[in-house]
Fold:
Amino acid sequence: MFTLSRRSLIAAAAAAATPLGWAQSGPYPNKPLTLVVPYPAGGASDGAARIFAEAIGKDMKQQVVVENIGGGTGLLGANKVLAAAPDGYTFFHGSANEVILAPLLNAAARYKPTDFKFAQPTTEAVIVLLVRNGLGVGTFDEFLEHAQRNKARPLSFATVGIDSLYHLMGDAMARRTGASFLHVPYKGAAPAIQDLAGGQVDFAILPYQSIMDGMAQQGRLKVLTSFSRTLPSTLKHIPTIDASKRLPDFEYTIGAGYLVRKETPNEIVERLRASVGHALRQSDVRTRLEAEGRTVLQPFASQAQADAYLAAQIDRYARLLKEIDREPAR
Structure:
């Protein structure tokens, strides 16, 4: 009995000493992975994540399950990842909205951008302004003039949440032009687009999705402008911001990528980075992403590159907040 008990104690001690327990279960990955998308199904982030989930799953030879967690401008999804074990089995389809702006501007966020480790940036998305059918404007400049003339009755605008980049853009646009806007936050792009098409809000600032073109052809909404100077070949039908005489310099895009908890072991992050990089090199993946208005980035080869990218993004949005006189929450 004594010998058996001693062996049990030794085995238990060895298991406890194994970092995070991940090495005990074999090489990573050896079970399904969870890809957290911080918005409901049907939005731009969800569409891109499902393209990557398929490619990453094939490369890792494991199922990648997309889990949509909407709310709090991505805060709930970010917290889900940060509460999970740092073993690479739960990773995040994140952008500046959730990783940088939420912790900077929302006092309820109990995390910092540096609580994440950036494995691999993936794309830059085109941001567009859409208006409801019947608003009576055909161009971005006509829209701005209409908003100024009707300042006593502010136009309502939809975004994916309070203090998202799209919300800040609306506030900055109002500040630059002297117009008045009423912000209406949604849990994601899909419900925002549906309400815009139904006439519940006057306009929306959102990342481009190909479904917007179909809804425009049906007369349910209009895509007035992108906030980019150059566009992928698939989006040449959308005006660029420099076509505007009123705000030709109002240029914005938003990047996305894959992140994990900062405590995740380097060898696991390297494997995830390699798998996402492999997906980025696939011609079918690039074609599908470009069809959704995304510029596909070249994959990074090292953690140093990914760390520098995150630091540059944090600095970029800190400057934006300064430009629009928004103070960080803490």
Q: What stands out?
A: The first strand starts at residue 33 and ends at 37. The beta strands are 33-37, 64-68, 90-95, 116-132, 155-159, 181-185, 203-207, 221-226, 253-261, 294-296. Residues 140 and 224 are 5 Å apart (CA to CA).
